[in-house]
Amino acid sequence: MSRQEINRSAEMEVFVQVVESQNFSAAARRLSMTPSAVSKLVARLEARLGARLLVRSTRGIYLTPEGASFEARAKEILESMAVAEREASRTSTPRGKVRVNANVPFGRHCLIPLVPTLLQRYPDIRLDLVLSDQVVNVREEKTDIAIRTGPLKDVSLVSRDLGSSRYVVVASPEYLLRHGVPTEPASLAAHNCLEFGFSRHTRTWPFTDAGGRAAVVPLGNLQVSDGETMRMLALEGVGIARLAHFHVSQDLAAGRLIPLLEQFNPGDVEAVHAVFVGPGLELPARVRVVLDFLYETVKIEP
């Protein structure tokens, strides 16, 4: 395939993204390009064809008759290319590096136990596993798959649901022996409640009572940066923590942590998703098989 033909397919991909997004900036985000690069590429395409394809105004982007015809044919060609690539990738061995980002609790308790099976199933995959409770920019960090918990905010990313887990308030038997067991949400005011220090975290703990839902602001002498540190401090008897059930399920089963105030638990859940760049970009086989593996094997305690 010549260099000119490769550029033609790229031009079609960018043009279709601009039309679908109705916005140069949105198309640029989906394609991991700058808005100026997208604009220049569309202008170059129009110059090469000798035809005006788009009309821009303050109200949006409009297709000319030539642009509508070109978009329809471009979609057909891109879909044919995607089908050909999918069929070829199914018959080849997935290989190459796949960077997966996950928060520390999910990585330690749900992902790491699956790594041996993943690498045994796909020996030509090189897994780049990054565990951090900082929310990474998937495009800037060149991340293939990111595990996100809680509400998804970046609508330009595609997601696959990996399950959800309810929250639970917990403390160690040693802490409860020294400080007593809280019998109602209001009694938490007399206890050392562990808090998260990052800004995106909701500071209140929700509960139910006779009047409906109630919120308690946890007060304590310690803030932490991540869930795994909070779990370890709760195990050490430092204070009371509120964590996702999947994070502490083994500790609860072993009696290392005790669930508290369950009769007041409102059943709030933490959703877990695998997110990746899309749509309109064909996933490489190496990324697709890892996504499928996670979807099939991740088991989150409810």
How would you classify the helix and strand content by structural class? alpha/beta
State the end-to-end CA separation.
51 Å
H/E series, N to C? HHHEEHEHHEEEHEEEEHEHEEH
Q: Please count the beta strands (DSSP E, at least 2 residues each).
A: 13
Name of the CATH first level of the largest domain: Alpha Beta
Helix count? Answer: 10
CATH-scheme architecture of the largest domain? 3-Layer(aba) Sandwich
| DSSP strand content | 15-25%
Mean pLDDT: 86
Low-confidence stretches: 1-6
Q: State the shape.
A: elongated
Helical content (DSSP H or I, runs of 4+): 40-55%
Supply the CATH superfamily name of the largest domain.
Answer: Periplasmic binding protein-like II
